[in-house]
Design goal:
It contains twelve helices and 16 strands. The chain is an alpha/beta fold and 474 residues long. The protein folds into two domains: 347 residues, Alkaline Phosphatase, subunit A (3-Layer(aba) Sandwich), CATH 3.40.720.10; 63 residues, Arylsulfatase, C-terminal domain. A ten-stranded mixed β-sheet has the order 6-5-4-3-7-1-8-11-2-12, with helices on both faces. It has a four-stranded antiparallel β-sheet with strand order 13-14-15-16, with helices on one face. Strands 9-10 form a two-stranded antiparallel sheet. Helix 2 crosses helix 3 and helix 7 packs parallel to helix 8. It starts with a helix and ends in a 5-residue tail after the last helix.
Length: 474
């Protein structure tokens, strides 16, 4: 890689020293099944800043970004110094998951704190139902200024009317998916041309505009990027920065897997898997640079000591594991997501990593508790504030997974239960149930269903699945 390209990647508010310190604490093993590194020497609890009564909250959501494609999780070549910096200054979750590995349902789960069967957005063709409140609406009712910038992706007849948003910048082109270059916007209900050629840069500018307003109230910004959705297009100045990097595809995958059965609708049949993998990494690095710009805006202002910053992704992505490209399935590479929280007054041990299971449905109750807003008793998720405050706090023991078939994806409806050590899934039709021991078989290659061990475990797992779907917390 040229020095010019390296400098482009490293031009973030996070210093080289910060990034190297963060990466040095990571495990050299792969992300799945990795050991937990030690803390970075955070301040003792008594030395933490006082918690503000009404903090500002910035949530950043990426698209299809795997947690092991980050610098701080020690990817072989992808650089993410801004996200690394958030992890060094906050807490990252090694076991964070989406409860439906599909864009629209997962995004609705982030916004509501509910499973898909509760909020009603079951697939990528369903519009926002409004049957459950977004946490942004609850914050608005509590006196917050609220902003949504970026990909909404619950397509209907255009974007929904969300009167509780003070700023709503999005797009409805391509079923709310948008496009990386020259994407027309809808700003507070009116069409408007993008001021920047590259969509991710434009969204960051709009987010900075919102943060820079003269807010008399605390604010909450929901910033939703398109990166890294297919076709994985980076900004032009970063295109090709990883062209010479060696790609180690998963066992069983090959460069032309994208042109085989079952992978057509993802669009990844165009070009070799190696080239697409590199471009995916370039797009993530481009997004990270924009996250760095946003953090610089926050940290160079009086906002820094009173602002929570959270980063996550709507789902993971499979790069040939199980000979699948894309999302839609219950496998670990598809359901695992990055989840990083920077909250100086709440976290006594910045730079550490939590092993408790964190879900997309946990964002809403976590944010509400941080803001001092009552968390509805019937929300499916759980606040992570106790875990952020004390890494020894027990987490959940299991959660409910669901996916609903829709055209044109050739993936069946399924439901299952994920515990700390096992994944059990039942399919509506066409496939026999699957049960994996994630300790002995982290790659999920050996289906225990129908074995003596499986026969012993399945009744208990089925009972857990039924309880979780009915609203019980385990």
């Amino acid at each position: 890689m040229s020095d010019k390209k390296k400098n482009q990647i490293m031009s973030h508010p996070v210093t080289r020293r910060d990034m190297l310190k963060t990466m040095a604490t990571g495990s050299a093993a792969g992300f799945f099944g990795m050991a937990l590194p030690g803390a970075l020497g955070g301040a003792p609890f008594s030395a933490l800043p006082l918690a503000p009564k009404r903090p500002n909250i910035v949530f950043i959501l990426s698209d299809n970004c795997r947690p092991d494609f980050m610098g701080f999780t020690v990817h072989p070549f992808i650089k993410t110094p801004a996200i690394d910096g958030l992890a060094a200054q906050g807490v990252s979750f090694d076991n964070a998951f989406c409860t439906t590995s599909l864009c629209s349902p997962s995004r609705a789960s982030f916004l509501t704190g509910d499973y898909a069967h509760t909020h009603g957005v079951l697939n990528n063709h369903m519009p926002w139902t409004g049957q459950r409140k977004m946490f942004l609406e609850r914050l608005k009712q509590a006196g917050y200024d609220t902003g949504f910038v970026g990909k909404f992706h619950m397509p209907g007849n255009g974007l929904p009317d969300l009167p509780f948003l003070d700023t709503f910048v999005s797009f409805d082109i391509k079923e709310n998916q948008g496009q990386y270059f020259d994407c027309p916007l809808i700003v507070d209900g009116k069409p408007e041309a993008s001021r920047k050629e590259y969509l991710i840069e434009e969204l960051t500018d709009r987010a900075i505009d919102f943060i820079g307003q003269d807010h008399e109230n605390p604010f909450c910004l929901y910033l939703s990027y398109k990166t890294a959705h297919f076709p994985f297009l980076p900004p032009k100045d970063l295109a090709g920065i990883y062209a010479n990097e060696k790609v180690d595809l998963p066992p069983g995958a090959d460069s032309w897997l994208g042109r085989t059965n079952g992978n057509v609708f993802e669009g990844t049949m165009v070009g070799s898997l190696d080239a697409l993998y590199r471009r995916y990494g370039e797009a993530i690095t481009g997004m990270d640079r924009e996250i760095g710009r946003l953090i610089k805006k926050i940290d160079s202002s009086p906002l820094a000591d009173n602002t929570v910053v959270i980063y996550a992704s709507d789902n993971g992505y499979m790069w040939g594991e199980h000979r699948i490209i894309g999302i839609n399935w219950h496998y670990e590479e598809s359901i695992r997501i990055p989840f990083v929280v920077r909250c100086p007054w709440l976290i006594p041990d910045p730079g550490t990593r939590r092993s408790q299971m964190m879900l997309n449905i946990d964002l809403a109750p976590t944010v509400l508790e941080m803001a001092g807003v009552p968390v509805p008793a019937d929300v499916d998720g759980q606040s992570a504030v106790p875990i952020l405050r004390d890494g020894g706090t027990p987490g959940r023991s299991a959660w409910f997974y669901e996916y609903y078939k829709y055209f044109p994806e050739n993936v069946p409806t399924m439901q299952g239960v994920r515990t700390r050590t096992r994944m059990y899934v039942e399919f509506e039709k066409g496939m026999r149930p699957q049960l994996f021991d994630l300790v002995r078989d982290p790659g999920e290659h050996v289906n225990l269903f129908g074995t003596a061990e499986g026969d012993r475990l399945v009744p208990g797992l089925k009972a857990m699945m039924k309880d979780l779907k009915a609203g019980k917390r385990l």
